[in-house]
Amino acid sequence: MNFADLGLSDELLRAVGDSGYTEPTPIQAQAIPSVLMMKDIIGIAQTGTGKTASFVLPMIDILSHGRSRARMPRSLILEPTRELAAQVAENFDKYGKYQKLSMALLIGGVQMGDQVKALEKGVDVLIATPGRLMDLFDRGKILLSGCNLLVIDEADRMLDMGFIPDIESICQKLPANRQTLLFSATMPPPIKKLSDKFLSNPKHIEVARPATAAANIEQRIVRTSPRSKKSTLIDILKNEKVETAIVFSNRKTTVRDLEQALKREGFRAGQIQGDMDQSSRTAELQRFKDGEINILVASDVAARGLDVKGVSHVFNYDVPWHPDDYVHRIGRTGRAGAKGIAITLATPADDEAVENIEKLTGQKIGSGSKDAKPPEAEKPQAEVKSEAQPEAKSDAKPDREKPARRGRGRSKPTEAANTAPKSPPKPAARRNEQPDAPVVDADDEWNGPVPSFLSASPGTKD
DNA sequence: AAAAAAC
Question: Which EC class does it fall in (predicted)?
Answer without folding.
Answer: hydrolase
